[in-house]
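User: I'm putting together a teaching handout on how sequence relates to shape, and I'd like one worked example. Could you take Methyltransferase from Microbacterium imperiale, show the sequence you're using, and then write out its predicted structure as tokens right after it?

Assistant: Happy to. First the sequence, then the structure tokens directly below it.
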Amino acid sequence: MNTQTRPSALWVAYGSRGVVGMIRRLDGRYTVTMAGADAELGAYPTMEIAKSALHAHLGPGADWPTFREH
């Protein structure tokens, strides 16, 4: 088993019109930044909570985005 972990990772969230945001893992936290934003939305303890926060900021009726690790 590989016990090495990357110090950070990046997932890009894609909606029906392209990139809508990203989630970056660093030091055990998941930081959400919306596309085009100058500031981070927030940092969350789990990936699932970060995904939910990103989705919530897309607005009412928005489809769940596709997350791809880069």
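A couple of points you could highlight for students: The chain has one domain: 8-59. The chain is about 15% helix and 45% strand.
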